[in-house]
Amino acid sequence: MIRILLAEDQAMVRGALSALLGLEPDIEVLGAAADGESAWRELQRLKPDVLITDIEMPGLSGLELAQRIQRHGLPVRVVIVTTFARAGFLRRALDAGVSGYLLKDAPAEDLAEALRKVHRGGRAIDPLLALDAWGEADPLNDRERQILRLAGEGRSASEIATQLHLSHGTVRNYLSEAIGKLGVGNRIEAYRMARQKGWL
C-alpha cells in the first residue's frame, strides 16, 4: 500500500482528492491537513510514504514544507499538485527535493499513476513544464524572496524589519538587491515580475 498524506487548504479540493485516491486499491489516505504547519505535524505523527501538497497554503507554503522535509531528512516523497504552471515554481520544487509536480487540471488517473511512479523511486513531472523549467533561472536568494513577498503584501520596510528581526537598513538593502537583479524600477514591479515568473 502507498500511504498518503494530503496538504491542501481548499476543503472541496481536499475532499475530492481524498475520495478519488480512496478508490485506488493500492493507495491509502492516512489524513489531510488544511495548512503547512498542520501538515508538518501530521507528517511526523502518521509517517506517510508520500505527501501530496499544494504550493500556496496559509502559514507554510508547499515549497517551504518540502524544504523543511529535505532539511530534516524525513523519509517521505513529496508530490506537488497545483494550479501554478510556472517554470520558476517547478525549479524551486526540484531544488527542494520534490519527486512529483502535477497540475490540478490533469486527469485523475494521472495522479494515481504519478504516485505509483514516485513511490517506486521515480519522478513524475508535467512534461511541458519540465521543458520550460530549464529556461530563465531565478536570480533571487531566499532572503530577498522572503522580503519581496512581504513587501508585495503591503508591509513597510520597518514592519518587515520587525517581523524578521533585521535592521531597517538591511531590509532596504535586500529590496534594492532584488529590484536591481530583476531590472525594474521599484519593489511593486519587482514583486509582480517575481510572482509572474513563479519565483515567489
Indicate the proportion of strand residues.
Answer: 5-15%
Distance between the termini: 35 Å
Helical proportion?
40-55%
Q: Supply the number of structural domains.
A: 2
GO molecular function, one term: DNA binding
Keywords: DNA-binding, Phosphoprotein
InterPro entries: CheY-like_superfamily, Sig_transdc_resp-reg_C-effctor, Sig_transdc_resp-reg_receiver, Tscrpt_reg_LuxR_C, WalR-like
Protein name: Two-component system response regulator DesR
Question: Please, could you describe this protein's structure?
Answer:
This is Two-component system response regulator DesR. One of its GO terms (molecular function) is DNA binding. Pfam families: GerE, Response_reg. The chain is α/β, with parallel strands linked by helices. It folds into two domains: 2-132, Rossmann fold; 142-196, Arc Repressor Mutant, subunit A. Helices cover 52% and strands 14% of the residues. A six-stranded parallel β-sheet has the order 2-1-3-4-5-6, sandwiched between helices. Helix 5 links the parallel strand 5 and strand 6. It is elongated and about 55 Å long. The relative contact order is 0.11.
